[in-house]
Amino acid sequence: MDLLLIPGDLTKDGALSSHLQFAAYLDSIEQQGIRVFVVPGNHDVNSGRAVSYADTSSTKTTQVGPGRFSEIYAAFAYDEALYRDSFSLSYIAEPEQDLWLIGLDACLYPDDHSTAYAETGGELRRETIRWLESHLLSEEALRKTKLVVMHHGVLEHFHTQARYFEDYLLHRYKRTSRWPITSLPFTCKQVLMINLIFLPTFVKK
Is 139 helix (H, G, I), strand (E, B) or coil? Predict the structure, then answer.
């Protein structure tokens, strides 16, 4: 195994202690020669639900905002990124020559000073779409194979999922699932989108 891609959720509710413990575990994986890349899920950033437990009681505990998230997981995406989106935790990295790994953050979390809760559903911000287009339409991108990783689904995992579990799909997922093909030059290589919610994705040579 060469790459381990984890598209969130990385924690139950985004507690700082949980993120630090998980990042330490990822470091032990990288020490075995496996490169790790992450993107956040809807439980990971400013969820508003981070608590610690003692016996049968729970108390609010420190949660993680987007800035702290990128610091904790710096070694697992953000320090290795070629390009980062200033409006989200999205990034483009190149783990192998001519392979672009595009980590998209579609999570809807409040800012650091809000008492609101993060939403279950996801949506790509207009600014993030413009950022992504600017790179995918570049001459540099034409020479790259692209692998996109995101927490929220762009395809139904089963028939009628959109009717009963729509929050697990990206808002306007049908349009988004066609977007890389319809809005980019046909000379671009095929874009593969991976969006497993519960299981990490393993990429082997």
Answer: helix
Q: pLDDT digits over 74-98, tens only?
A: 999 999 999 999 999 999 999 999 9
Position 100: which residue type? W
pLDDT in tens, 147-188: 889 998 877 888 888 888 888 888 877 776 666 533 443 333
Which CATH code fits 3-203? 3.60.21.10
Q: Any alpha helices (H) in 63-136, and if so which ranges?
A: 66-72, 126-136
Q: Domain limits of the chain?
A: 3-203
For 3, other C-beta atoms within 10 Å of its C-beta total 18
> Could you tell me if 175 and 33 are in contact, meaning their C-beta atoms sit under 8 angstroms apart?
no
CA gap 92, 103 in Å, rounded: 6
Position 83: which residue type?
Y
Assess contact for 81 and 93: CB atoms under 8 A.
yes
